[in-house]
Design a protein that fits this description.
The structure is a homodimer. Chain A is of the alpha/beta class. The first copy, chain A, is built from ten helices and 18 strands.
Chain lengths: 387, 387
Amino acid sequence: MKYQQINDNNRSFIEKNPELTTPFVVIDTDEVVCNWQRLKQAFSYAQCFYSLKANPANEILLTLKAQGSYFDVASIYEIEQCIALGIPGKYLHYGNTIKKYSDIQTAFKYGVQSFIFDSQMELDKLAKAAPNAKVYARMATTGQGAAWSLSEKFGGDIDSVFNLLIAAKKQGLQPWGISFHVGSQQLLAEAWKKSIAEAAQIRARLQTEGIKLHALNIGGGFPAAYQNNTPDIEVFSQTIKAALLSHGMMDLQIILEPGRYIVASAGILQSEVILVRHNEKSIHPHWVYLDVGVYNGLTESCAIILQVITHKDDCSPMMDTVLAGPTCDSVDIIAKGHTFQLPNSLTYGDRVFMLNAGAYTTSYSTVNFNGFPPLKQYFVGQYAKYK
Amino acid sequence: MKYQQINDNNRSFIEKNPELTTPFVVIDTDEVVCNWQRLKQAFSYAQCFYSLKANPANEILLTLKAQGSYFDVASIYEIEQCIALGIPGKYLHYGNTIKKYSDIQTAFKYGVQSFIFDSQMELDKLAKAAPNAKVYARMATTGQGAAWSLSEKFGGDIDSVFNLLIAAKKQGLQPWGISFHVGSQQLLAEAWKKSIAEAAQIRARLQTEGIKLHALNIGGGFPAAYQNNTPDIEVFSQTIKAALLSHGMMDLQIILEPGRYIVASAGILQSEVILVRHNEKSIHPHWVYLDVGVYNGLTESCAIILQVITHKDDCSPMMDTVLAGPTCDSVDIIAKGHTFQLPNSLTYGDRVFMLNAGAYTTSYSTVNFNGFPPLKQYFVGQYAKYK
């Protein structure tokens, strides 16, 4: 039965709490640890910085802290959250290329030592607000192969990264490394190859200028298994290792920023059917309206389609179903353009479950669009006690 | 000077509070009242229900309550907010066609008497949870002419609305009226005409079945003056009145659900430049990164472009500028595809102001994507004391 695909900890929580108001996500912290360990084993040659943005819950940060994780942070607010949890500044990597001057100052005071940048103005701020810090220049990528490209706003070309690292040294900073990100939910292990080759070129050019790099940050993007044919993490680690070796880059400190891979599979989203309706205007007229939608957790559904299961999957004929959220807004259609195969007997009050919902759901929730509160989150597993 | 376009109350607040952390919105409650009065005067023949979703701040609800407004609510959470503010249930209209059974029950207990629906299943829930309530069947529209269409998820055709109202009577509800919504930021006054004609047809058919309608809810959608050529509200009231008269519908109670029109112009969004960067990958390579973006207030910017002004507008050459938000996400580009004319001397720390930012900004904010807090809001004007 499909429902059995939900892991034991999450299923047990759901069954013990039938009265909880939906929608909510249950996160199994044991699965978080399991994903972490598998990643660490596959990338034994790298240092891993969990990317808070995927799911910044205290419970997850403390679970990963206990595993020895470092953390990739995107804002001063994430830094303050880590500091408040007893994670020292030197374990943090300020990975956003767009930082307020005062936020750099504060981060530096907290002991944050490494910063990413991709422009002269950011460099000027860093030189002044974080003198002698370790800086990484961000290289652009195409984002090809990724469900959620991260290329458009960030990163320079080879010449620009080279020049920025030269300038960094002149301005009293430590030109520590190069960083890039191939895009989130990246399905092609090959995607890293081109950037590694480019980084090797830049490194060689810098060497002739007397600048020795120490690290290469190859970003995150490692995919969650939303689809059955998602390559295993070992495929990525091996392909990347081969590329690093062939370009003589394995002597550098290799840095990873996993997010989605660590938390997605740990989360189950539970929702309730509010309405089933024949929508005569639609090519697919069978519509099911849920209490979760793009404004309270499923912002990513335009690019990332979660598997949806119900208790009725094995006892009713399935039919093409459009899923929509609960708000008075036409944009609030889940995975617009896609239909889900769902039982034709679904009715209001029925529960539906979305698998792999631990990443980029709760944090993307709106604060109260249409009055609906942000998506709630509960924690199970042996690390759930952390708060 | 462009900066003088900011109204006195908002400008005075901004100038008296130079140290406030950006981004934030300042709402002038006097302007809210002014918009309300102008709307009421133009639509002297209608009853106005302020649509909370545009901006559900307590200060705004209490300002409008003092003006005698009714309220259009989209969720049980909005109902509970109104009740907590002393707004009685009978002043509320539950305008969402997608409601949980338990939420209908609770609303009915609070004294909410009128409900919108557009499907047989919703009718079944209403008949059971809110017996004898006044119900409105929602008619579909094309959404043509609107910046933000609301047609895809909601509303039936003429036959379906007719049949639903017949069924409503059979199931012990009061078939009170017909509702429709021509889409948000609707620039064509003509857009209402077709729906009024259709509603008249349905009404005539119902009459032959012995059902007498009492009301016509013509929705909201009245535009804010984001652009200079936006038609005045009087153009809408006159065109709509002419249509109502020509179809013999003026004897019905006419109901309006304004949102954006009431609050948009009352709000100024103040933001800070974080970074200016040459983005060689972009057709328009001059990029300015702000501390506000699509995840903390500007979700609508894909369809609704706010006017952006700065202190430097009159003293620097202007240039094509791409605006982007502060998060590590490529989606976070403001009004993607559009360039803003901004001074080439902008640098980090400079303030920028977005006009007409009082609607659909704060409530669309994410709860903490990348750690950034939801967009803050302050209130000025003589009604600002309400909380």
